[in-house]
Design a protein that fits this description.
Elements (H helix, E strand, L loop, with lengths): L1 H4 L15 H8 L2 H33 L4 H11 L6 H13 L13 H25 L3 H9 L4 H22 L8 H8 L7 E7 L7 E6 L2 H7 L24 E10 L2 E11 L4 E5 L6 H9 L6 E6 L2 E4 L12 E4 L11 H6 L12 H14 L15 H13 L5 E5 L7 H18 L2 E6 L2 H7 L2 E6 L2 E6 L1 H6 L4 H6 L4 E8 L2 E4 L6 E3 L5 H6 L1 E4 L4 E4 L5 E10 L3 E8 L2 E8 L9 E6 L3 E2 L2 E2 L4 H8 L28
Parallel strand pairs: 5-10, 5-11, 8-9, 9-10
Antiparallel strand pairs: 1-2, 3-4, 3-6, 6-7, 11-12, 13-14, 13-16, 14-15, 17-21, 18-19, 18-21, 19-20, 22-23
């Protein structure tokens, strides 16, 4: 552009006698050139604005909504790069002269047709750039805003736009320079004299050189050529209303959910009491997170009904969106917004339409109380990137409880923390539960967490509930082989059942009393024995085995013993030291042999066999070791 501006005459090349600074000075004071520069900047700005708005919206639909229409748009826009630019330009000019027979829009000959051309050329690049930017924004960040009571517009204005602004603008600005000789040609097409000009039509002289014929653009028509008005944002009018009264029970009735042909949840029936702490426990892929997202309103169940007191949250005919449910949520990834301070995170839910009737003084007091309760007062002006893992988790908790929701959902909130921090955060979550009195639904795959904190456990497998009960009931009285293996870590001893007596396969003289053992184990010909119910001995009566692995855990040692063609797990005291490869015998607490006790405490073994309704401690939580890594009870020897 600079070299072209210094030429006395165009078309002579960059010869020394054709370049003068005087021409450069004269050009910069020429009104026609200034008008052309203004048009160039206007064209770039309009192209950027249109590409950003359309490209970002298309990227959102493609990434979040999996829209097929956007893929078609992207493929269509890519065609602009499959043909030469001159062919594209001529096609547009000929089309817009008379796009419909008898209709001659005034876009031809204005800057508008150039904007259309540039948008067509660069839209596909903007979509790709916006898609890459959208992929960097974790969906949980949007869901956290919705769980805080914000609608779709507020999520865009407060979360998505601030997070997408830098990468999207960087992508667009990087495309601003036209490259090649497009800027030079643009200046030429808008004239170099003292008059304002615009492109009118292309002429094809006999010599074959394409030139542009120009006509005067009256000052009055210049504004009309490009008179678009700025778009207006329309804010949804939420009615303030009264805060919903806290109801008693959260119910799921015959809830099922499908992802395509995959059944994620199968006929879930569950009732959760007010202020109850329920832990949903199961392996990856069992459906526990799907269940939590249905409770939160992020998913609509394929079948069934979700109610909270008298309010129907989800049914075949009704679906209350997340922002209108009386809940808070703590995400596995914390879902903290990187552009907001700790205090702004805590304030965020109180600025939603849910709390439109709350005074500013009450909001400030609620924020201060929550910051103090979670130990974040001294950290309130920090950004998430300046916090440790435990501090970020407390911010997530504070944001979820500041509005005192009736339901608090937690999706594996401690999985990203180290072991010591997990134990500390367990206590804090229990304190928060007692402080708020909220109904807590806590999803985890960690048995230690569930046993230590919950009032009730819900064990899930393959989208179905295997067993539900208090931690002690589930641990001491598993009703299915999966519950016995996943929670109680039971070993399945092979043998024969005769009535309520079980005879060990290798030594039928070793008998067990199994009056309370469920029928499913009897049909399998096995007896479930927890790791702490087995005792290792170097000699004597018992099952023959060989030490396969040894793990020292401080106050106890976890042994893996090859026995009956399987691997048995045994928890032994730290002073019972055996080495891998040692031949051992496995004795059982409470073994009954020929009607006489085998020298062990029969009552200790009968704790396992006593029915739940006879267990005076059934309502208490099962004791969990301080390490928190295993779910076990204390030995009763």
């Amino acid at each position: 552009m600079a070299l072209s501006a210094m030429q006395k005459r165009y078309g002579l090349g960059y010869a020394a006698d054709n370049l003068t600074m005087e021409n450069f000075r004269a050009l910069l004071t020429n009104t026609g050139v200034l008008h052309a520069v203004r048009n160039s900047l206007l064209l770039a700005s309009v192209t950027c604005a249109v590409c950003i708005v359309v490209g970002t919206a298309a990227a959102y639909l493609k990434v979040r909504k999996k829209s097929g229409a956007v893929k078609v748009l992207e493929k269509s826009a890519s065609l602009a790069y499959a043909i030469p630019g001159i062919v594209l330009a001529l096609s547009m000019i000929f089309h817009w002269v008379e796009p419909i027979p008898g209709v001659r829009p005034r876009i031809y000959g204005t800057i508008g047709i150039l904007a259309v051309a540039y948008v067509t050329r660069y839209l596909v690049l903007q979509i790709k750039g916006s898609v890459n930017a959208m992929l960097t924004v974790e969906p949980a960040l949007e869901e956290a805003a919705r769980a805080g009571g914000s609608g779709a517009l507020a999520v865009w204005l407060k979360i998505l736009i601030p997070l997408l602004a830098k990468p999207v603008l960087a992508e667009r600005v990087s495309r601003l320079h036209p490259g090649d000789d497009r800027a030079d040609a643009l200046l030429h097409s808008f004239g170099r004299g003292d008059e304002d000009h615009r492109v009118d039509r292309l002429q094809f002289p006999a010599g074959g050189v394409i030139t542009a014929s120009r006509r005067r653009c009256p000052p009055s028509s210049c504004s009309s050529c490009w008179g678009a008005t700025a778009p207006r944002w329309h804010t949804k009018n939420y009615s303030s209303g009264k805060r919903r009264k806290r109801m008693k029970r959260l119910k799921l009735e015959r809830v099922s959910h499908w992802f395509g042909r995959t059944r994620a949840l199968d006929d879930i029936r569950l009732e959760i009491g007010e202020s109850e702490f329920v832990a949903v426990l199961g392996p990856s892929g069992c459906g526990k997170t799907t269940l939590l997202r249905i409770l939160g309103g992020f998913l609509r169940p394929t079948e069934g009904t979700v109610t909270f007191g008298d309010d129907v949250y989800s049914s075949p005919l009704v679906h209350v969106p997340v922002e209108r449910r009386d809940l808070g949520m703590v995400f596995q990834s914390f879902a903290l917004w990187p552009h907001m301070t700790v205090r702004r995170h805590v304030e965020f839910p109180l600025k939603s339409p849910r709390h439109k009737g709350t005074s500013e003084r009450e909001k400030r007091e609620a924020v201060e109380r929550t910051l103090e309760a979670t130990g974040l007062t001294s950290l309130q002006h920090r950004l998430p990137g300046e916090l440790s893992g435990g501090q970020r988790q407390r911010v997530s908790l504070a944001r979820a409880i500041v509005s005192k929701p009736s339901i608090l959902l937690m999706d594996e909130p401690l999985s990203a923390l180290d072991q010591e921090l997990r134990i500390e955060m367990r206590r804090e979550i229990q304190d928060i539960h007692r402080l708020t009195g909220a109904t807590v639904v806590y999803v985890t795959h960690d048995q230690g967490e569930a046993l230590a904190m919950a009032d009730r456990l819900v064990i899930m497998k393959d989208g179905r509930i295997e067993q539900a009960g208090t931690p002690r009931e589930v641990y001491l009285h598993p009703q299915t082989p999966f519950a016995a293996g996943f929670v109680s870590k039971c070993n399945f001893v092979k043998g024969t059942w005769t009535g309520d007596r079980f005879a060990v396969q290798e030594d039928p003289s070793l008998l067990f009393d199994g009056a309370a053992v469920p029928e499913v184990f009897r049909g399998m010909g096995v007896y479930p024995v927890r790791p702490e119910q087995l005792r290792i001995a170097a000699r004597g009566r018992g099952l023959e085995g060989k030490i396969a692995n040894k793990q020292y855990n401080g106050r106890e040692i976890h042994y893996s013993i090859r026995c009956q063609g399987a691997i048995f797990t045994v928890y032994a005291d730290a002073f019972e030291d055996y080495r891998p490869g040692d031949a051992v015998r496995l004795a059982f607490e409470g073994t009954v042999r020929e009607g006489r006790e085998d020298g062990l405490d029969r009552e200790a073994f009968m704790v396992y066999n006593r029915p739940a309704h006879m267990d005076r401690t059934a309502g208490e939580r099962a004791p969990v070791p301080p390490s928190g890594e295993t779910a076990e009870t204390h030995r009763h020897v």
